[in-house]
């Protein structure tokens, strides 16, 4: 049964594999280019595992940012996790020993794989979600290590490499759009984000857009429940 769950979880995580390995390599290269070696790169990918925040973190490290600046930047960059993780509360509430790691490892891409709540027939849902989360982090760690090692022997231009995270977000959004028949959340997200971008500007739109998306989706959900 365990082998069955592991195999299904690995198959589910395959779409994330290529993206995370490549993006991890990009992060590892940036770390090496900034003068940081394998140990710090591996530690960040193991204990931080924050995708785009790790990219931003390279700049914070090299710029000598204060602790307060790091905290505020982290909140701003990862604020979206607070909003979409709310929808996983019911799915994770009975996860037991798996819960702490599953909460830690809930990235955008892992969320996109698990948010539908579907699990293989006969599989323990919590164990399945745990393995999907673990595989995804393994891909990121492997990529980070490879990138840092490659950065020592091969010259890489790092200009624009941070855009790779944006590319992965777009790919995840497209995959969700194609696999789901309900496009209301996606359209809501786009509309609220564009509205906030116009009103608050590109440096301040993230948190307002997340709040607005949460508000709109909550109202739509209540209306749908009332209709049923």
Would you summarize the structure shown here?
Helices cover 76% and strands 0% of the residues. The protein contains eleven helices and no strands. The N and C termini lie far apart (38 Å).
What would you say this structure looks like, in words?
With 228 residues, the chain is mainly α. It has a domain at 2-158. The protein is 76% helix and 0% strand. It has eleven helices and no strands. The protein has helices at residues 2-33, 38-47, 52-62, 67-84, 89-92, 99-104, 108-114, 125-153, 163-179, 184-200, 206-227. α1 runs parallel beside α8 and α3 runs antiparallel to α4 (67-84). The longest helix is centred in the N-terminal third of the chain and has 32 residues, at 2-33. The termini are far apart. The model has no long low-confidence stretch (mean pLDDT 82).
State the end-to-end CA separation: 38 Å
Poorly predicted sequence stretches spanning 5 or more consecutive residues: none
Element-level helix/strand string: HHHHHHHHHHH
Overall number of strands:
0
Layout: helices, strands, pairs:
Layout: H1 2-33, H2 38-47, H3 52-62, H4 67-84, H5 89-92, H6 99-104, H7 108-114, H8 125-153, H9 163-179, H10 184-200, H11 206-227
Helix pairs in contact: 1-8, 2-8, 3-4, 4-11, 7-8, 10-11
Which descriptors would you attach to this protein?
single chain, 228 residues, globular, mainly alpha, 0% strand
